[in-house]
Design brief:
The protein is an all-alpha fold. It has a domain of 39 residues. 67% of the residues lie in helices and 0% in strands. The longest helix is centred in the N-terminal third of the chain and has 17 residues. The chain starts with a helix and ends with a helix.
Amino acid sequence: MPIRSFLGSQAFDPELVAVMSAAFESACTSRGLRAASDDPATRMVAAKIIELVQDGLQDLEGLRAKVLHEFTA
């Protein structure tokens, strides 16, 4: 799960990590990014997903939509 490398010491439920990873991979693909890379754009997508989860958003479609909106607007 590519988002794990961006979590650092933060702990999340395994099921939530799976949702975060799916949202991360989907958002990266939609923006033409490689989820497995460590470039600034993928780091920004990962950071936004982590931020949204910490704020309480935990569903796949909601995360994906918010991230795509954030980087499209």
